[in-house]
Write a sequence for this structure.
């Protein structure tokens, strides 16, 4: 009898402590700018599972959430863009912006994303263009290709802008069953994230530089998968009659000297080997202070200033493609 009483007491006290910890986490840590909690909300409120093995997750159509202090909304396709018609109006060149969270614009207002800035700049120059942003956080290149083929190709873009980031060579994630705590507990989310950070700090997991370099070993499964996906993008664009261009987004934690020139060179060689233009955007930011380009000091996603810098390279290159479209098909003309 005493054993049952003691067991019940332990269970009750544990439950009370857990509730207190949850309350304290939400009250004192959850200020709307804590990376791990905002990513948790993003996964819960904006993303939805997609059971196809080469996709895994995507955005909900017509979703809305406040994340990292900015409003994130999706259109009827699940894209972070204003709604556009299924078919571009006559003379309008359509641009698809594909990529991961750096294309989505994590922590950046929609009108400050590179996709929105580039489109606005081109329209401001008199170009007849529209666009859509199908960037999804945590997508690799294979997932980006699958999403493009399944949801974005039907909008028939004339130009496909693929933003490449160093973690795009990660292998397909394993989507296991999530627990109740994973779905509902902010304290649990923070605990797991901090534990992972400690493991990396004390050598139980590879540090970020080693982790990225190991993704690009010649025999790494993720890199081989990515090479095939890049080829798939090139083939799909060619079959659609669209122009594909790849812009490489630098890892913003260290810029000068940049720690991954060999990775950039490797991706560049593969992309150009497919007959696709490749542009490294490191020169647009390498002389700037890295933290000034981050969403928050712990979160090195590109902020609005970084997006503005990237735009200075993207716009001139797209103008060249639009000149060709204007000449050949009468689209995107001034």
């Amino acid at each position: 009898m005493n054993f049952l009483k003691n067991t019940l007491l332990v269970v009750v006290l544990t439950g009370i402590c857990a509730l207190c910890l949850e309350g304290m986490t939400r009250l004192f840590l959850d200020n709307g700018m804590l990376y791990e909690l905002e990513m948790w909300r993003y996964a819960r409120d904006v993303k939805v599972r997609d059971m196809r093995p080469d996709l895994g997750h995507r955005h909900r159509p017509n979703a809305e959430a406040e994340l990292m202090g900015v409003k994130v909304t999706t259109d009827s396709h699940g894209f972070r863009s204003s709604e556009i018609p299924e078919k571009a109006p006559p003379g309008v060149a359509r641009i698809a912006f594909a990529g991961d969270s750096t294309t989505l614009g994590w922590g950046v207002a929609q009108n400050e994303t590179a996709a929105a800035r580039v489109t606005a700049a081109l329209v401001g120059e008199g170009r007849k263009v529209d666009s859509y942003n199908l960037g999804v956080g945590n997508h690799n290149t294979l997932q980006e290709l699958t999403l493009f083929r399944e949801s974005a190709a039907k909008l028939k873009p004339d130009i496909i802008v693929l933003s490449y980031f160093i973690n795009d060579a990660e292998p397909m994630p394993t989507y296991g069953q999530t627990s109740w705590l994973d779905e509902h507990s902010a304290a649990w989310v923070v605990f797991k994230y901090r534990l992972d950070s400690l493991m990396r700090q004390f050598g139980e997991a590879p540090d970020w530089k080693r982790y990225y370099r190991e993704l690009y070993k010649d025999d790494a499964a993720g890199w081989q998968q990515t090479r095939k996906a890049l080829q798939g993008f090139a083939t799909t664009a060619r079959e659609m009659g669209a122009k594909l261009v790849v812009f490489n987004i630098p890892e913003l934690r260290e810029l000068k000297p940049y720690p991954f020139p060999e990775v950039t060179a490797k991706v560049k060689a593969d992309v150009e080997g497919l007959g696709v233009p490749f542009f490294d955007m490191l020169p647009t930011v390498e002389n700037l202070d890295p933290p000034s380009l981050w969403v928050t000091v712990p979160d090195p996603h590109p902020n609005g200033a970084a997006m503005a810098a990237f735009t200075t390279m993207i716009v001139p290159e797209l103008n060249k493609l639009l000149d060709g479209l204007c000449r050949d098909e009468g689209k995107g003309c001034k």
About this structure: The CA atoms of residues 118 and 314 lie 7 Å apart. DSSP finds eleven helices and eleven strands in the chain. The first helix runs from residue 2 to 29. The mean pLDDT is 92.
